[in-house]
Design a protein that fits this description.
two-stranded antiparallel ribbon; 9% strand; 5 helices; 50% helix; 163 residues; two-stranded antiparallel sheet; mainly alpha
Length: 163
Amino acid sequence: MLNRATPRLASVFAPAALVAAVTLAAAPAAVLAQGVPMPQVAAKSWMLYDVTSGQALASQNADLRIEPASLTKLMTAYLVFEALKEKRLTLDQTITPTEIVRKVKSDESRMFIEAGKPVSVNDLLMGLIVQSGNDASLALAEAVGGSEEGFVAMMNREAQRMA
């Protein structure tokens, strides 16, 4: 709980915090200028970007083309929310996942839904967004697009429209 001394402490520490923030903000440029080696990152491709200056500070294979799994899930969520807005789906509506959910391998992210066992759209959205469940994504894709292929076509049309 805050006490009466808090405003006084804040006024004492605020200038120091500002100096620290300015010093830390300038640190990446200073570090790179000193020739510090790039960090070792366990990823095929990565980039460290300073949004304040708009400068790429370091990268490795930044132009490497990789599958955007999370981006696909974001587009899935976007199209599901559009379907909810247009009243083509409701949160309390139940969907019975088809055999397509068995395509999700045991080493993939999933919410562990079963083919033939009804699940609400709300629960599937939670599984998609919170657990990043590939099985939830497939079940929602079929509910919105009629089939996996139909949903892929919908995503591609929406991506073209956004471009």
